[in-house]
From TrEMBL:
GO terms for molecular function: acyltransferase activity, transferring groups other than amino-acyl groups. It comes from the Eukaryota. Residues 10-386 form the Acyltransferase domain. This is Acyltransferase family protein.
Length: 444
């Protein structure tokens, strides 16, 4: 089989890989050590604190920050080519490419997600998640979908999920897919903004993008809007500054920005009032955001934006994220995001709760399910590496075998629906949508 085309190494892929790794880590911590979501184990501090509840060290549970990074990258990558064509005055080429990318990028999100949903459906209907439903983790129980009573009901459930999940985000067979509908909607908002700004001057691009960011902030759109428009803004800087961006600021400034961003991303998801440092952050964010919003999402958005801008202006940070390890993580980041919950509900659950399931009855005398007991803490030191190795190996196989087939389906649909036309050879050939200019000095 022909291997999938390999992308050039770039720091955006590396950052995407780190974000996907943190998403998985955050879900693991939520499963087995949910107290890490708070700044202390209890309100009065009688149970003490874990070392991973301190600022910076608690980034292992910053899954929300990782999601914000994904939205930022969505705005950034989707805007690169249109901004470049607009700056060069290639309006005709830019609009055609925008039309193509609107279709193909949406398809490259929907088709693999559909494939992953089908896998989750088969596993759920065959009872593979039954052990997960008996675990002592509320999070694992919540993502363990029970089988339907009949085959007809199962098929109807699948069809409803495949259709309605792209409206309400309710992915029954993999609850972690709830963000994907927001990625699709966010991409459409990016395309609409790019279409509206195609003929604007460079200065107007920046002004309108800042206005969209401010509007999103003031209306509580901290999950999607603030992040995608910040990504659009950085895409304009990427085109206008190029490799000069890494020499624009003194070396210490990007480092300070990155450290500040990591502190912002350390904001606890729950019970922020339990510690003085997180309560001060909460009070400050309450004073500058609309009422009734998730202040954790705002801090994650601010932290993700600062982090990526810090990396953008830092030559050394780009070098690190361009390393082969981080780029490998980036290339498998989407299948890892799609499949890690399935691996948690199967392989990880079997390793953690299998010994208990072998000696405990499925139901008690009253017919109620008997909760399973997890293995010892020491066993986790062996189980977690196996889980990560399996997750990334499966993601690698997905990239090798499944993703090319999904790409062929999208290409077939594009050829079926698009009119045949001769490409207008005007102006400079547009850069690939995933390309990020990397200074030659950064590769040394």
């Amino acid at each position: 089989m022909t291997p999938p085309k390999r992308r050039d190494d770039n720091w955006i892929d590396g950052l995407r890989g780190v974000a996907s790794f943190i998403v998985v880590t955050g879900h693991l911590c939520t499963c087995f050590v949910p107290y890490l979501l708070s700044p202390m184990k209890d309100e009065k501090g009688e149970q003490g604190m874990s070392i991973f509840q301190y600022p910076l060290l608690r980034l292992c549970v910053s899954g929300r920050a990782a999601v914000a990074i994904f939205f930022f990258i969505t705005g950034f990558v989707n805007s690169l080519n249109p901004v470049k064509n607009a700056r060069a005055g290639n309006t005709s080429v830019g609009l055609k490419n925008l039309a193509r990318s609107t279709f193909t990028r949406s398809g490259r999100l929907v088709v693999p997600t559909t494939a992953a949903t089908l896998i989750g459906w088969v596993l759920a209907e065959t009872g593979v998640f039954s052990m997960a439903a008996r675990s002592d983790s509320w999070w694992i129980q919540g993502v363990a979908e029970p089988p339907d009573p009949t085959f007809g009901a199962a098929v109807l459930h699948l069809l409803k999920t495949l259709v309605l999940s792209w409206d309400n985000g309710k992915m029954d067979f993999d609850k972690t897919h709830w963000t994907l509908v927001f990625f699709l909607k966010g991409s459409m908002r990016v395309y609409l903004a790019l279409l509206a700004m195609t003929l604007l001057s460079k200065r107007s691009w920046y002004i309108i993008t800042l206005f969209l960011y401010t509007y999103s902030w003031c209306t509580g759109d901290c999950l999607v809007g603030t992040n995608i428009y910040a990504g659009m803004f950085m895409a304009q800087l990427q085109i206008d500054l190029g490799s000069r961006a890494t020499s624009l600021l003194p070396k210490i400034v990007p480092s300070i920005i990155i450290v500040a961003s990591l502190f912002a991303c350390s904001y606890p998801q729950e019970n922020q009032q339990w510690k003085p440092w997180s309560k001060k952050m909460m009070d400050f964010m309450v004073s500058i955001t609309p009422g009734g919003t998730e202040h954790s999402r705002y801090w994650m958005s601010v932290g993700a934006t600062l982090l990526i801008f810090g990396v953008f202006f830092s030559r050394n940070a780009r070098k690190v994220l361009t390393m082969p390890l981080f780029n490998f993580l980036g290339r498998v980041s989407f299948p890892v995001y799609l499949l890690h919950d399935t691996v948690i509900r199967t392989l990880l659950v079997w390793m953690v709760y299998g010994p208990s399931a072998s000696r405990l009855p499925a139901k008690d005398a009253e017919g109620k399910p008997v909760p399973l007991q997890r293995v010892s803490s020491l066993a986790f030191f062996f189980i977690i590496p196996v889980f990560y190795a399996a997750t990334y190996f499966i993601a690698y196989l997905w990239n090798w075998y499944v993703d090319p087939k999904c790409a062929k389906v999208v290409e077939w649909l594009k050829n079926l629906m698009f009119e045949n036309e001769v490409d207008v050879q005007t102006g400079e050939k547009p850069a690939p949508l995933v390309a990020v200019t990397v200074d030659a000095n950064e590769r040394k």
